[in-house]
Design goal:
- By secondary structure, the chain is an alpha+beta fold.
- Among the domains are: 314 residues, alpha-galactosidase from lactobacil brevis (Beta-galactosidase, Chain A, domain 5), CATH 2.70.98; 91 residues, Immunoglobulin-like (Sandwich), CATH 2.60.40.1180.
- Helices cover 19% and strands 30% of the residues.
- The protein is built from 12 helices and 38 strands.
- α9 runs parallel beside α10 and α10 packs parallel to α11.
- The longest helix is centred in the last third of the chain and has 23 residues.
- The radius of gyration is 27 Å and the shape is globular.
- Bound molecules: (2R,3S,4R,5S)-2-(hydroxymethyl)piperidine-3,4,5-triol.
- (2R,3S,4R,5S)-2-(hydroxymethyl)piperidine-3,4,5-triol binds next to loops.
Length: 737
């Protein structure tokens, strides 16, 4: 609910367990008052005033009222140049060179819906939206702040629209999406860093005086940092403490900056990275920032994650596949790499289909002269030497086996050795007359240009409409360099990186509306573009190129803080693992991959009969557990950053009727006594039958016993030398009686 008290000029946004409050002060500035636990109708006005601080100036209208200084205020949308020296959301240069807008309240209205953001991803669904217009005191520059309230998830979606009515062009040097000011200090920041094949590792660090920034200037959200951060009480755990999530629905360069200031208050800002960014806004034009989803939990990190999971599953992912059961797939990449033809593919499909797998995905290498990774990106025409008879014939043969067919594309890329590049040598990002960087022997198409997008669209559409293709894996295997577009004049080149992202979104939107039945899966060298922006376009993303079950524990653990399991592409692959050389039991690989969109990525012909039987069992089991895993509540039961030996997590049905407990060893040690694990989400006074995944009964216990007294994880026996029995996994079903 959104309330406005005209007398005090206070806005209060109420959600199920939280309140967001702000007010217009006597000078017209929009001050943040509170985002946290409910206020039960009360107001925080005047409670957090810092008092006088030397060197903190009073803005024009304030005269000598230094106590009201913007430098000491909690603000909703801080700007550069007008007396607030901390991190800002907006930096604008007016036609006369002025850089000091004073944004003051002009008007507001409440809309009974969630507005879409043109060309950008955005949450959707039933909600109320508060729109507050701020205007520069001296020129007709407006900032329209949007606050959409998703009550059930304690979420507020925020964005800003900058409108130029000054009568002359202005230049934006920074236009971020969100600022969250808190009147206290002593918080920790959780962020999710990594590298290729090791994404979203959790790092927790106290805020400091000065700025702590995580960001990307790689043109995509990146493997190295994720556009999601959590601010939390120093003592916050999975079960307790205040936590604030800030998640950006954007897939390009971003920044998230947290700082503790001289007065002991804390600020987080997030949005498009100003590094390399400039946007010329003509008179009458507007600039829409990406949306940020803020979520609050006073019940610790676990509740915060579960709120994001539900919000993103229900109000971010769209289309037919957002909630529909996804097929179990087999991908040929790690089975064949580039070495395949139609016969080999059909053999894989046949063997997989017999074991219950539902779809064959033909990965990289089916097009142009793509016999290795040095050529042919951009030539999205079927290679009939490899796929003899063409794609329709392959699809028909695979369909005849009762399987669907999926295809890999890398639409944003071009190889120098390609027909596309020979025909259009100016279509990739580079500055004419200068050299350019190569990465994986490929270049990046200038997706900001319509003609480039049209050409890629036409080639992809022809393949997708010429055969029964049920799935597309949309990959992206390098980051941007030499960002310069032939479509823009010299003084607008700072727009290229953002226009690239808008172009990718436009192409995705076009493909998906033309092929609404196709399931799209995102990928960027694994999880290099695993962000909330992309989940608006495709409901699942290949989580990492690292398919080692033990490494995946950490990657999937970190991912779970901000993203639902239904978004996590996860497969059982061959051992020794292709990324690490490690051998893990087939059972363990199945348990880990089941906490994602399940599939296989190996040569079935190389499996033993026993392993083939396990595939059958795993597929059956995954089907039976699908709704519990994807719609249930997810609980992290052990802190992976502290407990190195094993990992434990649980899915519990919202009504507590069923649960699935997963325990996997990542480090087997001599005489190690495993910890007691406390289950979650059960009905305390009901009884549960607990069985292992072979169907053997462990016992009947009350929910209270399992949650409060807990259950000691089984011991893992070590074997020497290391062998296939190391890294065991245990899975238990709990059914309420
Ligand atoms: C990177 C992806 O993450 C892999 O799964 C595979 O599709 C390769 N690209 C193919 O080039």
């Amino acid at each position: 609910m959104i309330f406005y008290d005209e007398k005090s000029r206070i806005f209060t946004l109420e959600t199920a367990h939280a309140a967001y409050q702000m007010r217009v002060d006597r000078y017209g500035f929009l001050r943040h008052l509170h985002f946290g636990e409910k206020l039960c109708g009360g107001s925080c006005e005047g409670l957090h005033t810092v008092g006088f601080m030397s060197f903190s100036p009073a803005a024009g209208e304030m005269g000598e009222d230094y106590v009201s200084s913007l430098d000491l205020a909690q603000l909703e949308y801080p700007v550069f140049g007008a007396g607030d020296y901390r991190s800002h959301c907006l930096s604008v240069v007016f036609a006369d060179g002025a850089r000091n807008p004073e944004l003051v309240y002009a008007s507001h209205r409440v809309i009974e819906e969630k507005p879409a953001l043109e060309g950008l991803p955005a949450l959707h669904g039933a909600c109320e939206t508060l729109e507050i217009t701020l205007r520069d005191r001296w020129a007709e520059l407006e900032v329209v702040l949007l606050y959409s309230v998703f009550e059930e998830y304690d979420a507020v979606a925020r964005s800003a629209r900058i409108v130029n009515r000054t009568g002359a062009p202005v230049k934006l040097d920074a236009a971020l999406s969100v600022c969250l000011d808190l009147p206290e200090s002593g918080f920790d920041l959780l962020h999710f860093h990594g590298r290729h094949a090791m994404e979203r590792l959790v790092e927790r660090t106290p805020l400091m005086h000065g700025k702590l920034c995580v960001d990307s200037v790689r043109g995509t959200s990146s493997h190295q940092q994720n556009p999601f951060v959590i601010l939390c009480d120093h003592a916050a755990t999975e079960e307790s403490g205040r936590c604030w999530g800030v998640s950006l629905l954007y897939s390009g360069n971003f920044t998230a900056c947290a700082e503790e200031d001289q007065a002991g208050t804390s600020r987080v800002t997030m949005g498009i990275n100003p590094a390399g960014f400039e946007w010329r806004l003509e008179d009458g034009e507007s600039f829409q920032t990406p949306e940020a989803a803020l979520v609050f939990s006073a019940e610790g990190l676990g509740a915060l994650s579960r709120r994001y999971h539900k919000l993103y599953r229900r109000n971010l992912c769209r289309g037919e596949w957002a909630r529909k059961q996804r097929p179990v797939l087999i991908n040929n990449w790690e089975a064949t790499y580039f070495d395949f033809d139609d016969e080999r593919l059909v053999r894989i499909a046949k063997a997989a289909g017999e074991l219950g797998v539902e779809m064959l995905v033909v990965d990289d290498g089916w097009f142009g002269s793509r016999f290795d990774d040095k050529r042919a990106l951009g030539d999205w025409i079927v290679n009939t030497e490899k796929v003899r008879g063409g794609m329709k014939s392959l699809a028909d043969r695979v369909n005849a086996l009762g399987m669907k067919l999926g295809l890999w594309f890398e639409p944003e890329m071009i190889s120098e050795d390609s027909d596309l590049c020979r025909a259009h040598p100016d279509w990739f990002l580079h500055v004419p007359g200068r050299g350019y960087s190569r990465c994986r022997q490929q270049l990046v198409l200038d997706m900001s240009r319509r003609e480039v997008r049209d050409a890629v669209h036409d080639m992809m559409a022809e393949v997708l409409s010429g055969a029964n293709i049920a799935y597309v894996k949309w990959d992206m295997n390098r980051h941007l360099t030499d960002v310069w577009s032939a479509d823009l004049p010299a003084d607008r080149q700072g727009e290229t990186a953002h226009r690239f992202v808008l172009g990718v979104y436009e192409l995705l939107e076009r493909m998906e509306s033309e092929f609404p039945h196709v399931l799209f899966e995102g990928c960027s060298g694994g999880g290099g573009r695993f962000d909330a922006g992309m989940l608006y376009y495709y409901p699942q993303i290949w989580c990492s190129d690292n398919t080692d079950a033990v490494e995946r524990l950490e990657i999937q653990y970190g991912t779970s803080f901000g993203y639902p399991v239904s978004a996590v592409g996860s497969h059982v692959s061959a051992c020794p693992n292709h990324q690490t050389g490690r051998t893990t039991p087939f059972h363990t690989r199945g348990v880990v991959a089941m906490s994602g969109t399940f599939g296989y990525e190996l040569d079935l012909a190389k499996l033993s009969d026993g392993e083939k039987e396990q595939v059958k069992e795993q597929v059956k089991r995954y089907h039976a557990l699908y709704s519990l895993i994807n719609d249930g509540d997810y609980y992290r039961l052990l802190d992976m950053t502290a407990q190195r030996e094993l990992s434990a997590w649980e899915f519990a049905a919202e009504d507590g009727s069923r649960a699935l407990l997963n325990i996997v060893y990542s480090h087997v040690r001599a005489n190690f006594v495993p910890p007691v694990i406390h289950l979650r989400g059960l009905t305390p006074d009901a009884s549960y039958r607990m069985t292992d995944d072979a169907g053997r009964e462990v016992g009947v216990f009350t929910g209270a016993v399992l949650m409060r007294a807990g259950f000691r994880a089984p011991r893992a026996e070590s074997s020497y030398p290391a062998g296939a029995n190391d890294y065991p996994a245990f899975q238990y079903d709990l059914v309420r009686l």
